[in-house]
Amino acid sequence: MLVFYSRNCLSRKAFCHRAVRFTIYVLALSLSMAGSGASLALAGGEPAEDFLKRLRAAGYYDIALTYLDRLDQYPGVDGSLKDAVSLEKAQTYIEAGVAARTATERDEYFAKAESSIADFLKNDSHPRAPEARLQLGKLQLVRANTLMMLNPDDAKKKAARESYLNAAKTFDTIVENLRTKLKEMQGEKINAEENPQLAEQRTQYRADFLEAKLNAGDARRLAATTFSNPAKEGKKLLDEAITQFTDLADNYSGYVTGAIAILHLGQTQQLLGQNDAALDSFLKYLEQPDAAPLREGRFEATSALAQIWLAKTPPDYQPAIERGQGLLDTIRPNEKRLPAALQLKLDVAKAYLAKSKDTDGQKKTDIKRAESAGRQLLIEIEKLPGAHAEESSKLLADMGVDLTPAELPKADDPENLDEAFASSRELYQLGEDLRQALELLKQQKKDDAEHKQQVESLEKQLADTRYLAIETMRRGMTMIRLGDDLSTLNQAKHFYAVLLYQVDRFRDAAVVGDNLARTSPGTDLGLKGGLVALSALQKLLVEVPQDENTNLVAQLKSIGDFLTATWPDDPEAAAAQGIMIRLALQKDQWDQAQSLVSKMPEGPERSSFERLMGQLLWNQSIVARQENNDQLADKLLSDAEKELTKGLAGIKGALIEPEGLRAALVLAKVYLRKGDDAKALATLDHKTYGPVKLISKIAADDDALQGDLYATELTTIVQRMTSEGTDPAALLKRATAVMDKLRQTYKGDDGQKRLQSIYIGMARSLKDELETANAAKKDKLIDAFRVFLTQIAETTKDPATLQWIVQTLVQLGEAAMPETETKATGRAKELLETAIQTYDRLKAETSDVPLSVQFQLARAYRLVGEYKNSLDVLEQILLEKPTMLDAQVEAATAYEKWAGELPDKYAPRAYETALNGGRPGPNKEKTIWGWGKISTLTNGNEQFKEIFFDARYHIALSRFLWGRRAKDTSIMKRAITDITQVEGIYPELGGPAQRAKFDALLRQVQKEVGDPVKGLPPLPPPG
């Protein structure tokens, strides 16, 4: 159960936004109390409780209080309600306080409510006494928070402190009372099925106990904030709060309350100036599951981290940006106005501004980008109410940003449409002159203040001129009269549509252009209007997310169909059909796209669309393969082959555009994927469209296409070396020549980077091939590449080539390992060791090795069982790039595998590191995250869904293995909690295969610890 008071910010100024939150809380409190009241009066008697609810709902609080005073005079009222009159009065005072208009009046009502609850608690044996005591503590917190709002004076701070301390005492009493009751229940064997009420009571006692304990610590922490110097004057209170929070965090981490305690622990440590300890607590909190009750705390914890880092000298802005922006990128619609989210945006903006002021070793573009990012965040939050607003406005003012709306120029009313049209054209011409002058001024590329002022002045004049032209035209359009010249009207409409399009008012431009097309069918101006509408709708499609553009697509289809039907012989109108095909392809509506293409007449345009479709189908087949949908991937692959074959067959005469070469290259890749290297090579060598023969004539300057071609040609040749009836020596010679072409194509530092990128792509392509190949084909591929790579490695010193060889050998070595094997042997081990040796040769040639290649070295070390070497390499990678997720996963895996081979004495520590990370970095953050943090940072991100569930699985696995090696049943039982917690939030656990893994592990743990072996509960039926 979460409490609203666990969300208070650290600084005293944060009290100004507590008004909204305490009101929300009291509303929840009132609902809670109303829902747990006595039963209705007996039939035929006074319907007392219902009447009370209606009076309070209508705002008749005085009448409700009078009614309660006279309740014993009415016959038939339930005795339990009469016994709880003081509690009902408290409820009435609370609701009156919520409705009060002033803080003074509100506090008076809350004081009366507190007094009424105290009167009620004089009868400590009443069944509702525990409920009343909990509400009393919460109300005391509410009163204190109310007093601390809006710059309180010393007297109010003192009164708030007393209320906080009273709340702490109340919660302490609840804790001790419930501790006794829970201990009494501890020896009882409560069967939930046989005695559900008692089981439910125990669950409620536990929840109330944890909530009271959390609030007891929170009340002390907040009481300390009422001092001018909390760390000094409130130290005793803060130390007591730390004791409460530490106990919760250590012993109840499996509960939401325990997780929240970690956040409050960090906030308390920060108040005491214990920044290193606070840093650890905040990071630990952020490693908790990304569950809804903990979301707001994530913003608070990340803000606190940013504040600690930025308080350093010099400010440590980079981790603040990475952490803060990373969380802001995942913000949900209902979180955008949360005070904690707004505060985080302010803190991240300050981090960006700190970066923009750091001129030591940074590029000017990076400095400007940081300043722009900070400014944008401040603009987003400056107008939103909250504690952040004042500081946001000041920071923007310091940057020279004035958000006061500019006064728009005024246009004179024209006499008629003709005058409006003439005036607008004059203004349009003036705007064109200003635009040209502005372009010339910008070309001077001066960096002084005067030049900047001249540019800004011209930009404003241009914007004002365009606005006046549009406004004049808009007014003129309202003056159309019956009998006006139709030609002038159409010209005016077209001109108006163009003006709107020019200033990016695409929706308006589409409406005007569409109207012109439909009211003037068959005319030149009608076609022009329709084309403006078409272009405007295309622009809008770029701006609007794909899942929200259904209406726009329908509009575009409507105008496109109209243009092609009305102007069937016009090539510009026919282009609308091409737009519709591209839209269908963009939405993966292949059948619709094929239907549209089939309706086109035979010819070059149709063939070009068939080639386009084929290439897109190839791309989709890759996506389907990555999503493990092999059946769909195979179908898309066959469809791609058909479309590409038709499209390439439609090429008549000499090929003059590189588009045809790209289509042929993709067709060769399709054949390679299907295992037909003979057809792949024949396509590459085709006399009409073969890119090998035509590349130098048609695309001599296209390095990207050349690189892709040579990589595909090389892969094809190597695969052909394993086919029967071929000449391996001749093919090896051709492969060597292609390698030379690759190196000649990319020279210099930039060329080396691009060559490295191509090699990485080749290694990735080979990995995909190996993953989908059958056993016989896989063996042939491994053997062919092994021979080829060995020969190349012995004859080259080219760094990019050596890097590719390292990566490819690692891919081959891993592919050669049986699925059940985690440590390489035989041929796989030989390949991986060769990769390590090749890396040593690479290091002898250059010290600048990309992280991706270092990562492959670390994988090679891990796969052959050299775990320390693997982790040493990964540590260096992660010091340079902490957010390299693949490396973080690899490091956690290495620790987990290493633990399995270490002696019992050292294994538990390795398992713990696999879980919680290790190797402190320069900011005292752990360089290696561990499975816990990996799961936290990937949670809720669809892109990393598979990694998230895999990390959650390994959390449970590592915990189980750790407990088993340590012979500690309590640790193994935590593995059960690890699984059931994530299953409670995500019942499907990432899909059937992953769920089966979780289920098998859960059964194994249950069996090991002696629990009934039940596994996961069945999934609920759909719907």
Tell me about this structure.
The chain is mainly alpha-helical and 1023 residues long. 72% of the residues lie in helices and 1% in strands. It contains 45 helices and two strands. It has a two-stranded antiparallel sheet with strand order 1-2. A hairpin with a 5-residue loop joins strand 1 and strand 2 (926-928). Helix 5 packs antiparallel against helix 6 (103-120), helix 8 runs antiparallel to helix 9 (196-224) and helix 35 (775-795) runs antiparallel to helix 36. The longest helix is centred in the first third of the chain and has 33 residues, at 154-186. The radius of gyration is 36 Å and the shape is globular. The two termini are 27 Å apart.
Layout of SSEs?
Blueprint lengths: L17 H18 L12 H10 L3 H9 L9 H4 L2 H15 L3 H18 L8 H19 L6 H33 L9 H29 L5 H4 L1 H17 L4 H16 L3 H12 L8 H16 L6 H12 L10 H18 L7 H19 L6 H10 L18 H27 L5 H29 L8 H17 L3 H14 L4 H20 L6 H17 L4 H16 L3 H9 L5 H23 L3 H20 L8 H16 L3 H8 L6 H8 L4 H18 L7 H18 L2 H25 L2 H21 L3 H17 L10 H20 L5 H13 L3 H14 L4 H17 L5 H10 L1 E3 L5 E3 L2 H8 L6 H22 L2 H17 L6 H18 L14
Antiparallel strand pairs: 1-2
Helix pairs in contact: 1-5, 1-7, 3-5, 5-6, 6-7, 7-8, 7-9, 8-9, 9-11, 9-12, 11-12, 12-13, 12-14, 13-14, 14-15, 14-16, 15-16, 16-17, 17-18, 19-20, 19-21, 20-21, 21-22, 21-23, 22-23, 23-24, 24-25, 25-26, 26-27, 27-28, 27-29, 28-29, 29-30, 29-31, 29-32, 30-32, 32-33, 32-34, 34-36, 35-36, ...
Keywords: Coiled coil, Signal
InterPro entries: TPR-like_helical_dom_sf
Protein name: Tetratricopeptide repeat protein
